[in-house]
Amino acid sequence: MPKQSRAATLESKERKAQLRKCQEECQARCCRYITVYLDAPHTKSDFDELSWFLAHENICIYVEDRRWHLEVQNRCKHLRDDNLCGVYENRPAVCRDYDIEACEFPARPVHTLHFDTQEEFDHWWAKKRASEKRRRQRARLAKKRGVRKA
Q1: Structural domain includes residue 29
Q2: Which residue, among 112, 110, 111, 115, has the nearest Cα to 51 in the 3D structure?
Q3: How far apart are alpha carbons 22 and 82 in whole angstroms?
């Protein structure tokens, strides 16, 4: 059997260390959900749809860097009980391209907004609508006052 080069041995050690971290520390968190981008909501229909998403189990919605995301918490069917990939050599490109250094462990990123339940979202939305209504009323009042002064 041919000897591995020093670089290959180092790469193999680094890979094993990364796999151990993934397997033991974060427990393959990236293999337990998927996230899709959403268009930012603007209309009542948009907000109703987001509320409807949250009426389902294992769903959350969050905003990160001004982008809206829908997260579906659902374990990959190829994730083995030992937290390693059962199809590692043939895994999809999205998995191959994932940078293990970008792992969210031990904590998730701080999101501008984060909703785990329909109630949380509906409460936030009601407050947003009330605030927007007050802002429009103040703007109309200011406009009327400006017209009277002229």
Answers
A1: yes
A2: 115
A3: 10
Cis-peptide into 92, omega within 30 deg: no
User: Does the reported pTM lie above 0.90?
Assistant: no
For 22-74, the pLDDT digits (tens) are 777 778 888 999 999 999 999 999 999 999 999 999 999 999 989 999 999 99
Residue 119 to residue 117: CA distance in whole angstroms: 5
Number of domains in the chain: 1
Domain that holds residue 42: 6-119
> Is there a domain that residue 149 lies in?
no
Count Cα atoms within 13 angstroms, Cβ side, for 53: 20
Question: Maximum Cα–Cα distance for the chain, whole Å?
Answer: 93
Spatial separation of the C-alpha atoms in residues 46 and 30, rounded to whole Å: 28
135 falls within a domain = no
